[in-house]
Amino acid sequence: MMTSSVGSGVLTIKAAISDGHVRAAEIVSTRPYSMARLFIGRRADEAPVLAGRLFSLCGYSHSTASSLAIAAARGKPIKDKSFAVGVLAERLGDMFRSLVMGWPDVGLGGFVLARDAGLIRDALSACRELVGGTASQNGAIGRVISGAESLGLGKNDNVLQQALSALPDESGFLSIPPDVLTEDDDESVCDGLSFHGEAFSQTPHLVGRCPETGAYAQHFPQLDHSGSALVDRMCARFMFLEAGLRHLSDPESSTLWSSGILRPGQGFGAVESPRGRLYHWAKVDSDGIVVDYGIVSPTEWNFHPAGPFVATLLGSKVGAADKAQSMIAWLAALFDPCVAFRVVLAEGGHA
Fold first, then answer.
1. CATH number where 28 lies
2. Is the pLDDT of residue 66 over 50?
3. Counting beta carbons within 10 angstroms of the beta carbon of residue 252, is it exposed (0 to 12), middle (13 to 18) or buried (19 or more)?
4. H or E stretch including 342?
5. What does the DSSP 8-state code read for residue 177?
6. pLDDT-based confidence at 349, cuts 50/70/90?
7. Is the pTM of this model over 0.85?
8. Is 100 part of any domain?
9. At a CB cut-off of 8 Å and minimum separation 6, what does 192 contact?
10. Of the four listed, 25, 148, 169, 279, which is most buried by Cβ atoms within 10 Å?
11. How many domains is the chain built from?
12. CA-CA distance, 66 to 309, in Å (whole number)?
């Protein structure tokens, strides 16, 4: 099974099933990890523009993280919150889009559009306009809120209830408390980028940790944990949407990024993008030229070969054949990778 193609590369999830349980799991990625090289040798002020163009998904978050990293590397960290509306609008737009696309159950997207397709499409347009700075903020924010209200959030008859009913009937996945990636980790992460480059971008790690980032990590304390792990993760996605709407009405209340000077000539930017904490690190020389650069995206934490997705999957009861395929696909969709994925099953103890 594969999601809609939303970026470069594919994640292949290989799972070995025995007696209905996942006995081994492997993630093979064809994601490109050399894109950071494209920043090297360019003028520092070109980096944020390039970041926004290279990444079709979460482009504003990448551009913002780049702006923060470059400013810090030049010794002038950005302190204001001028990026807040754009970051929030990108997160909300991605959430609206993901409600319609990318689910293993294709009927869920149709149900979302059936609520009021016009309002939802207009909310998506408003989010894009807010990201691009091409609309009156008050008017566009009102359109985003109208789209969200059409989903019936907070009411008995709402999209969340439909989404929960679409989930497989399962109890095999456990809701593991997340090891949340936070601002306190920023310097350690960017140290890893500065010393290990692309190898760290591909498989980032913090000693003794299994970090997760994104909606579930942020909202785990608010979940009631009365249902399955899939239920918890779906509920967290809607909490993420509702939190974004609250902050959009009051952008100054949000804490969406941080930045800092790692050492002279080196700076980083970390942004809470639609899928979690996104990092850019830059090294700039005295002539204002980028001499080294690094990026770590949320997907690399959540789908790390020894990360939280694999930890949730291993040992879980998923059944066999089509049922196992569906269960694993739902779990992957709710971990929300930024690229397409497919699930490959094998019988026996080795993925």
1. 1.10.645.10
2. yes
3. exposed
4. strand 340-347
5. P
6. low
7. yes
8. no
9. 200, 204, 205, 206, 296
10. 279
11. 1
12. 28
